[in-house]
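Session log. Operator J.P. requested a structure for one protein chain; no other inputs attached. Running the standard single-chain path with token output.
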Amino acid sequence: MATKRAVKTRKKSPTRRTAERSVVNPGFQLDVFWLALLLGGATLIAYFPAIHGSFLWDDDAHVTRPELRSMHGLWRIWFNLGATQQYYPLLHSAFWLEDKLWGEAAVGYHLLNILQHASAAFLLLLILHRLVIPGAFLAAAVFALHPVHVESVAWITEQKNTLSAVFYLGAMLAYLRFDEERRTSLYAPALGLFVLGLLSKTVVATLPGALLVIFWWRRGRLSWQRDCVPLIPWFALGAAAGLLTAWVERRLIGAEGMAFDFTFLQRALLAGRVIWFYLSKLFWPVDLMFIYPRWEVNPALWWHYLFPLGSLALMGWLWLIRHRWRGPLAAMLFFIGSLFPALGFFNVYPFVFSFVADHFQYLASLGIIVAVSAGIAVALAHLPQRARWAGQAFCILLLGGLAALTWQQSRTYGDPTILYQATLAKNPDCWMCRNNLGILLRNEGQLQAAIEQYEEALRLRPDYVEAHHNLGNALLQAGQLPAAIGRYEQALKINPDYPYAHNNLGRALFQLGKLSEAQKAFEAAVRIKPDYAEAHHNLGNALLQAGQVSEAIGHYQQALKINPDYAEAHYNLGNALLQAGQVSEAIGHYENVLKSNPEHPDVYNNIGGALLMMGRLPEAKKAFEAALRIKPDFGPALENLSLLRAQEQKVEFKK
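Structure written below.
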């Protein structure tokens, strides 16, 4: 009777695994340093136009604000929800450190973003090599040079994408090593990198799902004990981070209300269309723009159902061929899974402007890029030797074309005016761009042009609170106080809890001499936003004008607690302290102003007056003379100096 021989599967030795990788990725035999240098150099060249670009749209909400630049500000970044626009504490800690390194020089932020993007591409190369996937270098290069990623790399705000991608791919690489060697000591570093990624951007929560897709692709099935159990803590951490981010988006950022009021059917229709949109931009990256038109989601239109039905049909076909080719299904699962937070089932604030944005598919694009690159590599390997040069030339032309498109797209991100104008050329109904262009024009002193942009934004969206508010600011600057007040009141009718409109309404009323009404407006602003330094300062001005000196001092001090470098608050607090007879304390605040602006004649004059009150005549004289060196015809200093000289003469006469 014949006995059955047990068939044992042997674990591949490291030598055999390395040999396989050399066959599939022959280029990897090159020195790793040179591969990194090649990827980094190509990325730097493609993004060169963005290096000297300026800050854009909401960069000021991400780059560390003055009130967060202290050690206490760093504490607030981690432990005070709402201190930053989104609760990504590691990202904002990086911004905090960058502020210490290069301050407000945008070039430092741009160079770091490019470096992080190139690092992510190199980590992708290492991962594909470990997974023995063909076309590893081609995939890494396509990821590095694809123009759909320009928004993530050239826009400082999206440093959250590039930073989180480094941790995401680093955690993936570390976990793949743990999966191969099953050593407990390798698990902790992978989990640590995953947590760092979550603290940079919550989309990293999709990583454990992506790892399961990879394991299914490699082995054809998933083992609960081997594949799923080690990732349970990852899923738990990702779910917690996702729920927190969803709450922040709704409650603190404002991703709720009529703009997000969709039925489940509408969200499903939207998700289907979003998937095809991102796929189309990956395969045909033309007409890329900063803000895409916001679609209408209408279940009554039959053709809206074609998108989700097409997605289901594609996934069904890929499922049917999975026994022969698992790769395409794995790629689409990775792509859709990574996109899931931005498909429309959850509210994210940018949906106010558009349901799609290039930066949403930064990580998701990896699935399609890797699959297509692997397909190209396999196809080239099956070509006759004489024909392979044509395939290699195609790859070179592909990368060159992508790099050229990225160069061109990067140019539009170099300047906010160019960016908004380029967007409006393709999407003239972009009311947000109209509003932001108006802000730029107003800052340049082109008030009438700014007013026209605000009015056009309001024509497109009559309930646009920010446009009403900004139009009010332009009218205030033009001296049209009643018209400005009308706009602020309109903004507050739409959103009574808009602190900036309360503050600027107070400024307009203050200029009209309506102190009690101005005071109420400032009080509303600080009640809604207690850490609003400018509103505290303005309330202090109103109280000081009304003779409530001690109350004014309290609000000036609160403004400085929020923003210790607030020069104007130091100056006005000095004035209030001087009125209260706290002369030496007043001098200290005046001196704080001079640290940031040593050419301030008013401050020197006030210091001289304080010293004169203290009887320190020689020092007072020097202060008045310093004011006159800066501004020789400065009347108050001339008058005070003449009074001082008269006082000196009286002292001499008494002697």
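Operator note: Residues 1-29 have pLDDT under 50 and may be disordered.
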